[in-house]
Amino acid sequence: xxxxxxxxLDDINLLGSRIVAGPKGDIAIFRTxxxxxxxxxxxxxxxxxxxxxxxxxxxxxxCPLHNWQIELESGEAVAPDVGCAHRHDVKVENGRVLLALKxxxxxx
Length: 108
What we know:
By secondary structure, the chain is mostly beta strands. Helices cover about 0% and strands about 45% of the residues. The strands form two sheets. A six-stranded antiparallel sheet has the order 1-9-8-4-3-2, with no helix packed on it. Strands 5-6-7 form a three-stranded antiparallel sheet, with no helix packed on it. The protein is globular. The mean pLDDT is about 95. Keywords: 2Fe-2S, Iron, Iron-sulfur, Metal-binding, Nitrate assimilation, Oxidoreductase. One of its GO terms (molecular function) is 2 iron, 2 sulfur cluster binding. One of its GO terms (biological process) is nitrate assimilation.
């Protein structure tokens, strides 16, 4: 698997995100308060709202349009809502955020 160097972890604010142009649309990389990183397509499964503009809490992001709650680990909407934002592999090595675009993982 080839990893793309995106930025330093500190370049993404705590509880913030960064947008990366992917081959099938924008990808949002999220940073939690515990310095964990997650990457999802920047489209809410409900109406396509920009998840990168949503509020991050714990390991969830709230879509800014209709407040759908999306699990950052899986991309799954929290019940009673149903849907999925595609997840991408992302990791932090030596303080750098790395993204694997070829490994788009569908929801379970």
